[in-house]
Amino acid sequence: MPSLIRDLASEVGDEHVLTEPDMLVGYTTDWTRRYHGDALCAVRPGSVQEVTAVLRACAAHGATVIPQGGNTGLVGGSVPAKARAPAPVPANGRAPASVPAAAPGPRPAPARSLGAVVLSTRRLRELGPVDTLGAQVTAGAGVTIAELRAHATAAGLEYGVNLASRDSATVGGTIATNAGGIVAIRYGATRSQLLGVEAVLADGSVISRLSGLAADNAGYDLAQLLVGSEGTLAVITAARLRLWPAESAAVTLLAGVDGIAAAAALYAQIRSLAPGLRAAEYFEAAGVELVREITGLPAPLSRPAPAYLLAEISGSTDDAERLAAIPSLEQAAVAVDAPGRAALWAYRERHTEAISTAGIPHKMDVAIPLTRIAAFRAELDEAVRDAADGAAGTGPSGPRVFVFGHIGAGNLHVNVLGPDPADSAVDETVMRLAAAHGGTISAEHGIGRAKAALLHLSRSQPEIAAMRAVKTALDPGGLLNPGVLLR
Ligand code: FAD
Ligand code: MLT
Ligand code: ZN
């Protein structure tokens, strides 16, 4: 191991190889604190050449590599697993009789035994000039979404992804997870913003397509293949990204509703009246109470409601005026200036922080067809209660369930506090319920380590076999993020 550290240090500099436990902990524990593992070191390359050198050194020494951006991922994909003690060699030196026959299909990667290296991309921070004619920009993988958005705004354009983790989440991480966020109903998820990438493959070779050609049909789209690959196929070092004409948000409104069915119906009504609808977010009374408890914010509306729809409409105020005709918006809070809008957004955006302050949550991010979303919600609480019944950590008052999310995309975050973080019964129950309602187990956060065992709920066996074949072709040695996405 010291020789790996020596080799890495000679490639990136001593100060960029971190081995001290107190320095490493921020790289080996995820944002939720639910996932934490062991790493030999964290290494911070500063260029694509250094990323290549790091991958080659780790491959040569038999270490695995965990790519990491802002470490805001919520599915345990950005941190290593716990190191396992090496399997004891049987006294007779022979394999145990119970070894199962090899499964058909690509051969599994050989086990790497040395341990894991976290490869942080945070030093890949180059941000190119905005091409205002083509409405594009090239950004290093370690640039944060807030920096990218500010850069685009300064040029009179907008980057089409926005999320509450914007100050830490990176370009590389959002591509690797295909992050959605609050304006995905307007611009699509990260996939829709991507024109090309530069990335280092497991063998150290570099693929680069940063020309930004909007029309280019020459073969497989490798950039799109890396979207949602969660660090298992390559290390993304830079990306060419599409930008959009800047829109001024004309109005943000927060309406109290009776529940999720009413929220979905109100969303559809606003969508038909306001072509400039940018965001449609959902949350419930339990979440508002917790946010207020943690932040001290005042009540959002003069009368409390069981649930809330927050909508943001851009462009002309005509759209907003047409909405005044909707009776259920009579009680809504409306903001037209930036501070007022931010005050309304806080009730939605501070859910994540408030829930994590109250405990270590079970975080599920499912998507359900809007036609089934009310039926899913109606069955959810009882299903969670049953799954949590008797689980360590669940107190006599039962689990606390928080439901919020990007309702315009049918994208719901189900967060549960109570059951021990190591117990995954609640997680599995929620994901199975989503699948039973025609939904997916991941709307935007990805699969990570958290859901790898349940991928079959959203992807067929032939699809999983094809994914494995791609993984084996690009990373035959199992160097990159083992155990994430594919078990
Ligand atoms: P990390 O957490 O560091 O990594 C995530 C995954 O990407 C890991 O599998 C990692 O191995 C891989 N990866 C990272 N960088 C690279 C790279 N350069 N090359 C290859 N693989 C890489 N997500 C949403 O989709 N929508 C939201 O609205 C949203 N809101 C959030 C709000 C809060 C407060 C928080 C804490 C999280 C939120 N997230 C949201 C989740 C998270 O921010 C996103 O998943 C984000 O895309 C992760 O980016 P990151 O740079 O932090 O990646
Ligand atoms: C959000 O929409 O707030 C996020 O995806 C984060 C979360 O699920 O907590
Ligand atoms: Zn979200």
Q: Can you offer a commentary on this structure?
A:
With 487 residues, this protein is an alpha+beta fold. It has four domains: 93 residues, Uridine Diphospho-n-acetylenolpyruvylglucosamine Reductase, domain 2, CATH 3.30.43.10; 110 residues, Uridine Diphospho-n-acetylenolpyruvylglucosamine Reductase, domain 3 (2-Layer Sandwich), CATH 3.30.465.10; 104 residues, 2-Layer Sandwich (Alpha-Beta Plaits); 115 residues, Alpha-Beta Plaits (2-Layer Sandwich). The strands form three sheets. It has a seven-stranded antiparallel sheet, sandwiched between helices. Strands 5, 6, 7, 8 and 9 form a five-stranded antiparallel sheet that branches. It has a four-stranded mixed sheet with strand order 1-2-4-3, with helices on both faces. Strand 15 and strand 16 form a beta hairpin. Helix 9 crosses helix 12. 47% of the residues are buried. The structure holds flavin-adenine dinucleotide, D-malate and zinc ion. The site of flavin-adenine dinucleotide (FAD) has 37 residues, from strand 3, helix 5 and strand 9.
How are the SSEs ordered, and which strands pair?
Blueprint: H1 2-12, E1 17-18, H2 21-28, E2 41-43, H3 48-61, E3 63-68, E4 115-120, E5 136-140, H4 145-154, E6 157-159, H5 171-177, H6 184-187, E7 194-201, E8 206-208, H7 222-226, E9 234-245, E10 249-257, H8 260-273, E11 277-284, H9 285-295, E12 307-314, H10 317-323, E13 333-335, H11 338-349, H12 351-358, E14 362-367, H13 373-388, E15 400-406, E16 411-417, H14 425-436, H15 461-474
Helix pairs in contact: 1-3, 9-12, 13-14
This protein binds flavin-adenine dinucleotide, D-malate (MLT) and zinc ion (ZN).
